[in-house]
Structures are given as C-alpha cells and as structure tokens.
Amino acid sequence: MKRQLKFKRYFFKDKECKEYSHFEKWGIDEENNSFNTGCLIDTNELAPYYTDAQYTNINDDYIDELYEYDIIEVPAHYEGSSWVMEYKAVILFEDGCYIFREISKYDGHLYESELNSCTVINLNLKKIGHIFEQKN
Q: What is the pLDDT of residues 44-65, one digit of tens each?
C-alpha cells in the first residue's frame, strides 16, 4: 500500500497564530505519482503566518480525513472496568505516533489514547473541526 503524504497549512494574520484565517491542502500522492503544491506557490499577504498539520492516513467513520490539530468527538464507551463519558479531543503527534487528547476535563481525569484505525472503528470517532476554529 502506497502512502499519501498530505498536509493542511493553516494561515494566520498574526505571528502568535491566534487570528485564524483559512487553510489549504498540499501533498504527495505516491499511488498517482502526483504532487499538489497548493498553497506553497501562492503566498497570502493577508495571512502571512502558518503552521502545517499532517494527514494521519486515517479517516473517521464519516469518511472525513483526520489531520493533526483536528477536534474529534469521542462517544461514551466502556474502558477497563468503568464507563467513560463522551468528550472532545484534539489529535496530536507525540513520541512518534498520533494520539488524541481530551480538550476539557469533565471529571478531573485527562483521557489520552493512541490514534489508529482500530480506535476509530471501535469508538466511532467523528471529526467536528480543528483547534484553530475554537474561540478563546
């Protein structure tokens, strides 16, 4: 299986990356031997600052591609010997793998898990946005 190296470039109006403007996709598709330069050629004067987020090569149950910094909804599920209530999490890349980490602690516990295709299928994860769209 050939991997698709895809990225989203998130553009910001300020150096601190707090004033989100928009995103564009770019990447390499090994299967079709193509390279999409997208936003790399065109510089955006209104939003000159950016950060890149890599595609995890995993889609949620609704066929949405999951990238770093995406926010997902994790439904209530049974874990170990107790129920974990529904929560929202952000996808991050740490220590060589993608993880999802709870955004807000509803009961004083911080939930974190490795993100892989089994996790998505077993937990019925759903993408609901990305962290840069969130209001502070």
A: 677 888 889 999 988 887 888 9
Which run of H or E residues covers position 47?
none
> Are the beta carbons of 93 and 68 closer than 8 angstroms?
yes
Spatial separation of the C-alpha atoms in residues 42 and 93, rounded to whole Å: 27
Closest by CA to 38, choosing from 7, 5, 72, is: 7
Question: How many CA atoms does the CB half-sphere of 71 hold within 13 Å?
Answer: 12
- Specify the amino acid at residue 90: V
Structure tokens that stand for 41 in this block: 């050629």
- Torsion over CA: 75, 118, 134, 136 (sign): positive
Entry field: residues in the chain: 136
What global pTM score does this model have? 0.76
> What are the domain boundaries of the chain?
4-133
User: What H or E segment, with its residue span, contains residue 87?
Assistant: strand 87-94
